[in-house]
Amino acid sequence: MTAIALAATGCHVENPDTPTPPSAAAQALAELKALPSFEETKVQVQDVMNEITAAASKIIPSITWETLDQGSTGNCQQPYEQTDGKRYFLPDAVAARVSVSDLAWTKIVEAARVAAARIGATNVQVIRDQPGDHDVWFSGPTGTFIKVAYRGNLVVSGYTGCRLPRDKK
């Protein structure tokens, strides 16, 4: 799971304290300029999370969703550390103490797969898949990811990847 988080944040473990060389930093900036803005990406990821929670609520009508954190933002890591890029872990959507059958889980994961594909998060990684213990990540080549997990609580998470704020593009 750490490898996924490192890959998704653009972190390189070869000499993490060495600044990105100027040519690579310029290329990283050009990549970010070609992507949707930080603000647009936050909205896109939140929309996908909302689509997944709505689908889960249709599958299991008794679900009550909560937001237990405010998310977290920060500057980007290598090779984007010399840009004005930002990254954001959106607040998790949590349905506490809900019973999710294997059939319901399969339907929720399919809804998540379809929704995540809308933002290019089509790489599926199954971290855990045991009865009552599930963790599935949907990631894309630009660093965004959506995560759906269940272990007594159903959790939907999202991450923007590194993006330039609108006023820095």
UniProtKB/TrEMBL annotation:
<protein>
    <recommendedName>
        <fullName>Lipoprotein LppV</fullName>
    </recommendedName>
</protein>
<keyword id="KW-0472">Membrane</keyword>
<dbReference type="GO" id="GO:0005886">
    <property type="term" value="C:plasma membrane"/>
</dbReference>
<keyword id="KW-0449">Lipoprotein</keyword>
<keyword id="KW-1003">Cell membrane</keyword>
<keyword id="KW-0564">Palmitate</keyword>
<keyword id="KW-0732">Signal</keyword>
<dbReference type="Pfam" id="PF16708">
    <property type="entry name" value="LppA"/>
</dbReference>
<dbReference type="InterPro" id="IPR032018">
    <property type="entry name" value="LppA/LppB/LprP"/>
</dbReference>
